[in-house]
């Protein structure tokens, strides 16, 4: 996937020394970008609400007992990063194997509400750690994600999950453009987006039924289309990465499907249909230590708007570089990132909520 991203960078004229902030846009003139609207349609995640952040400090044993596993046999507990058989938490991460074995069995429909809530939290944690916010570990999930789903589950939809997912993807694209050796992020979102817009290595899929059912609050998103059985037999671009790069190099504006959701918009999840002017506002996308700025005015064509020359970026390159330098592993005491990025949170509150 990173090699393929290199092809996208070549298409843009990017490369060594380019500002990684440019990696959010794909194509030449007009450009295309992965927008908050795309996250809403492909994943069914809202792109407004409270920035995704919470306490990142432990200890986690009491919180795991209260929200996931209220039993005495909680298992081994190690603060070291080296994993051992039977561990629940390694460092500050919950082991995915333990979570699946002890919390991943669906209860009966008539089970007590507390049991259903614990199972719901376990499913949410696995989605966070493996699909929406995957990281390099691949076998564990940051324990502080539990803070996002503890307590009243009715408050979970109030978070800006779409913006957080897009922030993670933007950070990953930034790092790919800077030639990092290992890059992790929500690559499935990027893949679904590419298949929706670009005729490059796009598979054939069977039509999906049940769109809009049982209601717009719980129906499947557009991205489900690409989760069906796929066939690449008729794809003239299948094969090596170089084939995709060559095709991207000659891709024209008319080859892009600028409005992939227009025919199915009426049967998409309600969060995808309830767009607002905020989708076209420059603002920071926030996910804990990640702050990525969103500039939709650079790609107005995909929103059905006339493309004008965008004004100068409101954030200097020095600020962008500083934001890219923040990582969880940099801090031993797990700081409150809301304090570190106070100005970004204030900017989000002023312009987006």
TrEMBL record:
UniProt region (Disordered), positions on chain: 11-30
Domain Aminotransferase-like plant mobile positions: 33-313
Signal peptide (from-to): none
Gene Ontology process terms (BP): meristem maintenance
InterPro entries for the chain: AminoTfrase-like_pln_mobile (IPR019557), MAIN-like (IPR044824)
Biased composition (Basic and acidic residues): 11-22
This protein's name: Serine/threonine protein phosphatase 7 long form isogeny
Taxonomic source organism: Rhynchospora pubera
